[in-house]
Structures are given as structure tokens and as C-alpha cells.
Amino acid sequence: MRATMATGLLLLAACRSPESIPVDPLADVAVTAIYFEPALPEQGTLTIAHESGFSHTGQANPSGCDVRVPPGPANLTLTVAGTRYELSTKFGSTNGELIWRWRSR
After folding, report:
1. How far apart are CA 33 and CA 99, in angstroms?
2. How far, in Å, CA of 12 to CA of 33, rounded?
3. In the predicted model, what is the mean pLDDT of the chain?
4. Could you tell me the pTM of the whole model?
5. Domain residues of the chain, as ranges?
6. What's the pLDDT score for residue 80?
7. pLDDT tens figures, 60-85
8. What are the backbone dihedrals phi and psi of residue 11, each rounded to the nearest 5 degrees, phi first?
9. What is the 3-state secondary structure (H, E, C) of 49-88?
10. Is 7 helix (H, G, I), strand (E, B) or coil?
11. Does domain 26-104 correspond to CATH entry 2.60.40.10?
12. What is the DSSP letter of 28?
């Protein structure tokens, strides 16, 4: 009886959904420099929505900004003078840079 219960508990633990395992999205982050081309006419707001669940909203200087983001796909939303621009990108696991040609999007 005890062996059957122990086997059942092991099966339950093995079938646990991956979504229920807590993940720290900032455990493995890199700094990415985002440069705006051309430079923004004024300061804007940058929102990052990462597939891991990590999200961040911060100020974007006209020439660019540095962000600490876990590796993987993310959607970026830039708001400048009331207009929104969006970009989908994939962040790497090492420090890097991203040139965002925001007027062409």
C-alpha cells in the first residue's frame, strides 16, 4: 500500500506543469544598448514586454538608453510625442546593442 502511494506521489510530481515552476527572469540578464536612429525629437517612454513575463517601462532619452533584459523574444513599444512605435526583437545572452530605426516602423 505504501509503495503504491509513493509511486503515485512520484507520478504526480513528474507530471507537474512547467508553468507552475517559478522562474526568475532576471537571473540571466545582459545589458543591451538601444540607439534610436534618427535621434528622437524629445524624450519618450519605452515599454518592454518579454515572453518570460518580465516587463519594464522607463524613460527613453533622444539618443537611446541601456536596458537589462533576459535573453529571448520581446516586444518593445516606444511612445514619442503621443505616437506609438512597436518593434519585436530577440535579446541575446551577452551584452549587445540594438539600432532602432523608429521612423520606418
Report:
1. 8
2. 44
3. 82
4. 0.72
5. 26-104
6. 96
7. 999 999 999 999 999 999 999 999 99
8. -65, -40
9. EECCCCEEEEEECCCEEEEEECCEEEEEEEEECCEEEEEE
10. helix
11. yes
12. T
